[in-house]
Amino acid sequence: MGPKVRRLIGSLLALAIPAAGLGSLEWPVAGGVPVLTFGSHESGRFHPSMTAGPEGAQVRAIGAGEISFSFDGDRLPSGLPCPLGGFVALSHPDGMISVYARLERGSLPRYLRAVSSGDILGRAGLSGFRTGRELSFTLYDRIKRQYLNPQVLLPPVRDDRAPLVRGVYLSSGGKVLPLGETRSVRQGTYEIIADIQDPLAASDARPRAPYSIRLLVDGKEAARYLYDAARAESGRLRFFGSARLDSRSYFLPDGRIRLGSFLLARGRTTIALIVSDHAGNERETGGALQVD
Fold first, then answer.
1. Which pLDDT tens digit goes with each residue over 45-97?
2. Where are the alpha helices (DSSP H) in the chain?
3. How far apart are CA 125 and CA 108, in angstroms?
4. DSSP symbol at 7
5. What's the predicted TM-score (pTM) here?
6. Domains of the chain by range and CATH?
């Protein structure tokens, strides 16, 4: 999601009016199959929404609320194409706002205002700006002014596969060294890079993000990243709570992630990476090396 899309969503969210008591939530599309998850790599950026399919699926309200804004045209009043396609912004209790985008033109409710949980809001399948045809779903906490990971609040997806760690690397001075194959390095500061995906099936190659990443150096937690919320500050998207990571510097162009820079002192050093998904499946990998 680019800056223009975030600004448009921010304008919508400012129009919403909180009510009281959100209660249990439902998936916006039946089956609950995320194509892209919160925090996925999308066009070089951190994806602060969830994309769910399939195309043509009925899109339903995740909970009770009121429609605060909807758009069912091809172009905005300015004449520019709408980056969200057709969309509905729904105001929930306790300041929660849900935005349902990439909706098929003509499928949005014309006269509906008050919405009950499960009410149909349209059909997934059309965007005037992107090539994707699945629903783009964004959840926003208006009180804390941050994007939320929808999968933290929605019913869990059936998933028995652990996240996939395709590689962990040490980077310094233009050299990238794969952990596990590298036996020794010189003392110094190294950036640790990881290639992580969360497939739902063996043949699944979609770049879904995990939920939690823990980095341990010599048995001590050196960094922890939780994909729970993101906040726009000073024109940049920052996320993972206290870590305050910047989405522009987190991803490499190929989707690998930067976990931080760490000083490796002389001696035997062990690096471990523990990654878990929203269903609690966990993968641990790493290696040991000699620091000279």
1. 788 899 887 878 899 999 999 998 888 877 777 777 777 778 899 999 888 99
2. 3-15, 150-153, 247-250
3. 12
4. H
5. 0.83
6. 3-153 (2.70.70.10), 164-291 (2.60.40.10)
